[in-house]
Amino acid sequence: MPLSAETLRDLHRRMLRIRLFEEEAGRLSEAGRIPGALHLYVGEEAVAAGVAAHLGPGDQVTSTHRGHGHLVAVGGDFRQMFAELFGRATGYCRGKGGSMHIADMDLGMLGANGIVGGGPPIAVGAAFSNKYRKTQNVTACFFGDGASNEGSFHEAANMAGLYRLPLIFVCENNGFGEFTRQDRHQAIRDIADRAAGYGFPGIVVDGMDAVAVYEAAGEAIARARRGEGPTLLECKTYRFFDHVGVRGMGVVYRSDDEVRAWRERDPITLLERRLAELGILDEAGAAAVREAIQAEVREAVAFAEASPFPDPAALTEDVYAS
């Protein structure tokens, strides 16, 4: 069934919000205005948008070190996000978490994670809770190709399959584990093949096509809500920026030609072309959406820079949960 105009516009807006947030975060980081390392999601927007469009109240997301896009996709607030990146008290984690620990429990975003493969065990716990409480909620677990080699992923997949948990494993396969090409760190081509060992389906989808991700994720999430267990959704995608930051650490591990070839399949450009062909959104309409989001970005950055740093007296608050 063809997607509605409303759904297609929603996918476009989610992706564009991620892109413009991340591009601004990258500029601020390169200018030395944001402390610490940033792992940017530029190029991979179709994955988060296509999955998040199916999530609702009570659903959960576990993320990665490259987690800004996941939070934006489920409705993250730009002001709180930029404040967190600036280390300010008005941030999501009161300025004490930063990029790799950003979270919003009200949106079901259980947190970005600085540990490779740290998300799957948390996702299993959330999904087990959903099943135990007999809800219709699902958990989406984002992770990369490198994390699929970690024992934590395999233990989580085993438990999810055994207990038929309402869990979608979303592998964002961008072709590299940090700086190591996939064929140098694993013997398989399709990570989705690993699902067979745990008794649930594995599906490969074009991660640069928001519609393809949306459709595949919709089937996997509906299956989970029906109580039929997990699915491994492997999205073949690519990050346009380096592993860390925009220009990275000067490590040469991919060619300029390769990056250019993937940029020609920019997921936002591809969707905008489709929307124009369908008469849903023309160039002027797309520009208006972009400008509205840019204004939101500018206002959020101003808010963040005007916000106070955390009070040193609050250093030990929020370390433990009571």
TrEMBL record:
Its cofactor is thiamine diphosphate. Keywords: Oxidoreductase, Thiamine pyrophosphate. CDD domains: TPP_E1_PDC_ADC_BCADC. Pfam families: E1_dh. Residues 13-312 form the Dehydrogenase E1 component domain. This is Thiamine pyrophosphate-dependent dehydrogenase E1 component subunit alpha. It comes from Tepidiforma flava.
